[in-house]
């Protein structure tokens, strides 16, 4: 390296990417150096020296001997510096080298902690931990007390030296090493990997593991909305109102003690019982004007105050008050606005603009964050905040604290409000709840309540409230009693019995018995309607509830007996607390999911946010600026909404597809797949190894492995863990994998670990399992995990990938134990994206394993498999295209395809219920478009092409007819069947097809007209799409939607689909496209020509890569969106979801059918690819046949139906022949020369014959490309078709009118909404 | 001969009892197939016998005696249901499994060695008092049992109501979200803001 540390060593002030090593070149933490204070540059006498490596000024490599270090806490960030031994002064350490981070993690944590405490010496400890947790998020291990302990001396040093820190209670505790009350939570014994680090008291009970993402979700939620108590402006244990005000309150008695909060005075049980909490304001729809504070009705015709339309704002205003503030200098405008608001015009209150500069808030930039007054609609940007509103008391200037920082917002009391020095806030008289007029009844209850108070001295629950609140208190009281009544929990009954003194109990019994003696049949029927009765009901709940049960059918229950039972039960029940139960029900780590706490997302918030989105859109439509829209609905609200959405999706899905669901959402790998895996894996096993299956499920894997290894004379050990005892006890231990200790398993170099862990949402569980496995340092890890799982080569101790096989587990690779569909068959599992099978090797074993892999040619497959992108799903589109283009597929097939497609759409419209189920898994982005497009397709059919429409109906009709004969069809949802009558008189399918075809022709001429416009954006898209699927898809969308005519674009997509089948015209299309070329963006041109020059492709496959990817992907997207809507979409989402999400039930019915179908096809193809190509041909025939079988079964394969029955099988075989002819030799080479895009392109070619029509190709396509690519070269036409196809998109897009969208939705929505009740 | 057969029968029966579990809290819709599939993860079901509920003309959760292959499996199932909430057939509440007891079988063979005979007891007989006591006890237990069931039903009803409320509330929320996601409003606005929703 650079050894320029001679005399002329340049002054270095800061280094990044640094690390320090000792004399033996081992990385060491700088804290082993002596700690030095202050600014002295004197080189100490110490012997210990370390060498600092790093980069200064971005380029210059630094290599210095250093002798001491220091920590400076004064700045914004803690600053760590080391002292150069050569007298070069202090060198600041900026960012450590990645690999070094782990080494210095602890000292960094300590430094951050000191820094935090210095800034906020009085903050509660939990804030400290939250802060640290956030900072050290990227580490696998959370910061814990243990980390701090190891730098005890450092803390001590600062505690003594720094006057601010010396005051910190928290630090003192650490320095003194006192044992903490919550040591168990943050202590050493809890170094579990990314376990929740629990700091908040209220979290302790929950004991639910959430991943880091989720935590941040919740925190953001808090930031976005008002998450502090409306009464006392402090946080803590608060309850959010579900109404429009969205305020939070300290609801529980005794909460908010820190801030002397009066609270709403509810008891714990009451809160527990409230599913929806409405504050009194929202309940009675009376709110205060946030400016003048007057309480007025806020709902209906009598409304006097109106709600601000901002998503996160729950303030109401008098039109007059707010108009005056919004136009302070213009009375005319103010009056006008006032009038408009009174008429219901939505407005945004002044709180959403900076009082000083009138700008909007931007939470992402600190200076632009808002400081919001809690008492009046006044906000300042952080940077605009007047000096008098200070975070600290400044005594000499008589400034008192008026501002407090939340994570992304600041709370202030602006200068208009006098701060009460006792409570540190302004006087808390700002909230007025409506004095509810509950006339007679209320008074009566109040009397009762008072009486009760006298007799029963329930003082525990009824803490006296201030006079001004008495009314409110009374309301609460009645509420309370009611609540208890409602809550027929054993507990409350017995509590009442037990808690009260014996005498009263006796009295109650007496009362109870009295009526009974009159009418022994039922205890409470005849009880006198008096106060007594009400009292009694409090206690004898069951009997009052019993009246609901018709006496005729329920045997009369002797109330004596009941009482006896009650008392027996009572004793038991009172011993039982909710906590005990929760503890018992704690879910094993493998099945924890994060869909909790949805209850806490307040209805009001969602409602308001949703409304605000609408309002913001409207604003934009009206031509207001984006900033205006942002004032209504901030960008963060959108993010929050989409987060909520996915959260609810996870949470609610078990209810949507509940009935077939059986526990745990376990999915097992099918035995035949396991055999395949075992076949591959056994080469790597050495005698004496221990094979650990950490989530063995049915325990088949190790059994198969053992058999196999037995055959090849390798003797191994096995160890299988799972939570549920399998039938096969072979080497099984019923254990939670997370609890297995390192010493229980042999040394890592004898360990082979892995297989199919539960995935969890976003693969969180899989990650956890893998992390645990890695702690054993096994030499080999074999995994079936979804792609989003963190790859092992990105772990702290990276593993090397030996191979990866994404096909092995595509198809019906999994089954769901314990689930049955309607036909009593076990539901089989499919994944939208087959989780790849990985083999990872510990680096020191990699060589060896690679060698084995090469010997058995595992790697080849692996490499190609790597390239299979998510596109699988989308792939069948080009396939179709291709099919059309090949002249073998004459116009007729094109037509059929078309019917297929339209039928699909039709199906989709007819099956709105499916929607509800459909919404799973797929990324939102796609979905949005998808549905839009699908909707439009139909719309387009109706408006533009009557004939087409005609044709659609009959086809689906015809197919329906067919399906009816079918047993399988039983499992379809009923809606579908209901549709049938409408379509009864239909033309024979053939005829419709013809009509459709003509129709199509007529669309072609239109293409050119919109061509230019479209092509430019299309080109953009194409070029940007080149590389990575995900981003590309997104790009595409951005571009597309960014265009002014969003709708028409979408329309275009859908139309493209409709017109796409005109295969016979493919050539002419491409010609028509070329004139537009000049308009393309220059850089695109480079790429684009390739896409339609087949010969070039032959010469230079590399160049083509990008191009093809480009041209394919967009089309895939679009195609996918529209066509596959009903089948792919359905099934893929469902699939993805059901496997991903632990609680998710298995769905079934219609969607699964699609999935199965497509799976079938591709499993056949998988064979093709992995086996001899010669046999492939024969099989593809088989697959055709198979598909025929399938398509008769599944109604959505409508097109398939027609096609298969009509197209002679020979056609299929012909194409296959030609394909395979071309393939043979090119096969291998093609494989290798292909980049990631290659496979995508090639699918079309190979799948052409068999997938021509049906939606089944989705997976098959991606799999095919392996061997298929070879032909794309020689056969030429296919590739040329690709580009033809792309232009065809361009041309047709505008046929559909824009207006159809809005109309479309109403059609679908009701159906989807109706889905709920059914479940 | 007779006795040996009887005792063998009885021994067989006891074996059967050991490998049988009693599943309670089953949804009335659960069928033999469903149980088989659900338990297939850890046991092979040999026979399922639903216990007919004679006591109450009510849709109370049904129960079944499930015979498994061996005792081990029976144990596994019982552990499974006690360790985790185990749901069969989409019933929103977990089922409970316990080891079966001989008394649960309506068709149990007579225990060899114990001879039962029946006779009338009149007032004044030696056993009359104890008989009387037993009779009262039986009655009392019956009524208490009924009271228990009644209370349980009420509780369940309440619970179901609560759950339904919670679910409804959540569904409502989800619906609202779904609307805005579905109609593209969210996405459009995000584009206008230039915000990427996916991270």
Automatic annotation (TrEMBL), chain A:
The keyword Metal-binding belongs to this UniProt entry's keyword annotation: yes
Compartmental location: Nucleus
Entry-linked InterPro entries: Cytosine_MeTrfase1_RFD (IPR022702), Mtase_EDM2 (IPR058939), NSD_PHD (IPR055198), SAM-dependent_MTases_sf (IPR029063), Znf_PHD (IPR001965), Znf_RING/FYVE/PHD (IPR013083)
GO cellular component, one term: nucleus
Composition-biased stretches (Low complexity): 1048-1074
Main subcellular localisation: nucleus
Gene Ontology MF terms in the entry: zinc ion binding
Coiled-coil regions listed in the entry: none
Keywords from the named record: Metal-binding, Nucleus, Zinc, Zinc-finger
Classification via Pfam families: DNMT1-RFD (PF12047), Mtase_EDM2 (PF26055), PHD_NSD (PF22908)
Domain Zinc finger PHD-type: 228-283, 288-352, 353-418
Residue ranges with Basic and acidic residues bias: 940-952, 960-985, 991-1036
Keyword Nucleus: yes
Superkingdom of this protein's organism: Eukaryota
Protein name: Zinc finger PHD-type domain-containing protein
UniProtKB/TrEMBL annotation, chain B:
GO molecular function: nucleic acid binding
Keywords tagged on the record: Coiled coil
InterPro entries xrefs: Epigenetic_reg_gene_expr, Nucleotide-bd_a/b_plait_sf, RBD_domain_sf
Keyword Coiled coil attached: yes
Coiled-coil ranges (or none): 143-170
Superkingdom, natural source: Eukaryota
Protein name: RRM domain-containing protein
Source species: Digitaria exilis
